[in-house]
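Loading example: each entry is read as three labelled lines plus one structure line.
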Amino acid sequence: MVIRMKFKKIKWKHYINYIVIGIFTAVMGSMSVFGSMNASALYLLEKIAISIILAVSLSLVVGFLGELSLGHAGFMCVGAYLGGKAASLLTPSLGNGILTFLIALLFGAGAAALCGVVIGIPALRLRGDYLAIVTLAFGEIVKSIFQNTSKESFGGAIGLNTPRFDKKYLFIIAFVLVLLTLWIIQNLIRSKHGRAVTAIRDNEIAARATGINVTKYKLVTFTLSAAFAGIAGVLYSYSNYTVQSAKFGYNYSIEILVMVVLGGMGTINGSIIAATLITFLNTKLATVLTGDLAVLQNLFYAVILIAIVIYNNAPALKSFRDRYNLSAFIKKYLKKHDDPSHVKDDAQKWDVVPTKIDMNEVLSVDMVPPEMKDSMGKGGKK
Amino acid sequence: MEILSTFINGFSLGGIYAMIALGYTMVYGIAKMLNFAHGDIIMVGGYVIYVFMLFSNPILAIAMAVLFCILLGVLIEKIAYKPLRGASPLAVLITAIGVSYLLQSLAQIVFGSANKMVVVYDFGAVKFLGANVQISSLLTLGVAVVVMAALTLFVKYTRLGRAMIAVSEDRGAAQLMGINVNRIITVTFAIGSALAALAGLFYLFKAPSISSTLGAMPGIKAFTAAVIGGIGSIPGAMLGGLLLGIVESVSYKITVIAPYTDAIEFSILILILLVRPTGFLGKKRREKV
Amino acid sequence: MADYILETKDMGISFGGLKAVQNVNLRIEKNQIYGLIGPNGAGKTTVFNLLTGVYKPTAGTFYLDGEELKGLSQEKINRKGIARTFQNIRLFNNMTVVRNVMVGLHNHPDFKCSLWTSLFRLPRHFRCEKEMRARAKELLRIFDLEEDRNNLACNLPYGKQRKLEIARALATEPKLLLLDEPAAGMNPHETEDLVRTIKTIRERFDMTILLIEHDMKFVSGLCDEITVLNFGTVLAEGETKKALADPEVIRAYIGG
């Protein structure tokens, strides 16, 4: 009996984001279908859905694999252009319906996934800063290529015009795709394969020694992440009517990264909330802050980004963090009496696992006698 | 003599990249972090020159730019990076990106989004083998070579320089030997930032217009240069910078590939990292097990 | 050849011109506890790194249960049956204890579950997860870590972290377990506990163990046979007591 109850509890925890987003979509959807939503609200909802997909898919690489990708907008760009092009080519023959959309979606996601594989290959050899710069370079290359395409192919600097879909329904489809993204990505991280990915993040050397196929999992993670960025790109091309490569620069990648960091690395729900919040704020602020003031928004994000990372990672703040920890705080108030003998279920901890790569061992002096270290040092360096 | 002027252009551009790359390479070698905001220091240097040129002479403007950038570099290190020493490299990298973003948006708030024009000094041009050569280009290259030589000597023959090598080899051991690691890192940031200010100056010689994103692209390209030459290597940064400068100026001259210049440079970066992650002159390091 | 679980033949490696380890000929029989000892810098960990594929031998080769493993990648060697712990503990720090062990069970034939099965949450995925967790708990019970299974690995005390690392290595069901200074940094009480644990492992899992250690009491109390390394070459080998009594060995340790 006790076991059953515990089981139910995990389920709630695991499915709460599906339920919340599902209800939200149903409510908004019925409001839209029965005609009480204006165009700007619909556009905002589409943007929120796109942001969530981007943030959650980036979170997979940054939060769970522990590698920094600065080219997420590049994957999105590939999806947007190829999906958009496929849609505009198919519309004359198939009409502008759901079938065209689905084919465009597959096309965009597939192309982006292919790019993910291409970027995953350097990821096998490179880590950390070097990999981050490769992803950045990838994003810029993609941007530059689409910028210089001919007018007939992808529109070059003017951009590619994409078919128009009934706005009344587009955001509903977008949120269904959000649910699909969540389902696949959360399924991955809550499985043995996801565990392997986090093991690589925590200690790649140990992961190898434990028999984890690091190559496979790095490729899988990058590919999956890129595929969903591609899906976001296709949605964007449908939502925006035109796709311009200039939009998908480094800055956009950073904006997505801010969402992931703000939400807390390694927590999917955090990414969802942060993506929603930032997209909402962006839109609202855009009407208030015009002209040169618009940049205040960027300043705000920069400060938030720095503050959060320092707060979450500074070694000097560790004791402070442990004392005033948000999740502990919430738990304390949710649980009337904290019984230490009460065995929490294993799965519960998953969502609050903090993300840190333990490079200390590699960087700091370890407690080995100097001679010992010396011998290993000689062994290590060529 | 199109070719000659292309190459001289390339060399002077390469000199700028080399100066920025030197900053990258030193910070990377010693603080073990990719200082994403390094490129934006160039932009700040440019703006300081712009402000001082409004009411004073070029010499003062340049001096103030160098001074201001040093202070800024050290301040950034103290506020944003120092608290994260010992934290995961991912956290440091993200913070550096945040700082870069912060500098760009601050500059945009203070100076607006429109480009500012500033002509520091016009040295004019000379005819050389039939080609029109800007004296400022030669100056850039000259200063870059001098800076590189000076840095090499500094690192090799001064106490401080040797301490820097020690910290880059093994921070923990250096600390045990009584080296003040924090001070070394501060000095490194100061030197890097001063070089960035100079790079900003030479950028203005090349194109006398500043915007808040002036430093972003050169910053990333200079990092590419540092990687090509081998991160941590001072002559490597120079070599990488010059190579990249030549590639860029040659690529701009060939109409067919000119629009893809950035893409070409970044492809070179990816290729080098894949084939030889340690660059041409870098040392191979293996992770300890 | 197949009489030995591990056999190395003139195995060695040089880095540049430096011969870090040379002519190592280990012969370890099934169910033995074998010690690899030697002064600091003798190349013991390098031998471990060779056996686990971190480095590739530049000379000689090695066989596990008669199969040559030289040149295989770390993950492949692990799947062939060599598991290890590290001198400076390497746990998956931000994962819970039970999950650390479950990573060890990743390639276990009992818990096969493809990526697609997991991505689409087919029934097999749930069964596999449940069984893996149960198996992990079982292993943790043996190491007296069951109570801690939901704590993050980084929050465990030192002695338990060592044990967890061993548990994780055992989860991969190796034929040979390599322990790199398992007793380093432990107090006498913890060391005693560790000796018991290692003996239990041998009996329960019918395990062959190769370990590096400095503590002579620990070595003589535990190991059936040892090899003494000095400056990358074998100084003495054979039955523990005899090898330790070798005058060369005493000289290397005490100096003289």
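The mean pLDDT of chain A is 81.
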